Prior knowledge:
0% strand; single chain
Amino acid sequence: MLSMADRSVLVQASLCTIPTYTMQCSLLPGKILDPIDKVNQNFLWGSLETSIKMHWVGWHKTTRSKDKGGLGLQTARGRNTALLAKLNWGFHFEKEALWT
């Protein structure tokens, strides 16, 4: 009963953030990241286990930034990479923050 806009907000706010704690400290394999994206896709398009709905736009197009015509959603692999890059940045450039 949710609109497409409501579902995209829920994908960004909750479904993508659930595995974030694990993603910030370890590189997850594709066998874990791909099903996370699949769950997000199915929720976005309103698919259930009993009724699969047509995905009218490819996932690679919905994950584009909004100014390029996408919905601004992140892929699980992209989020994992970004969080590890943030951790790496902290180790190299914010050394005083590690000791507080």
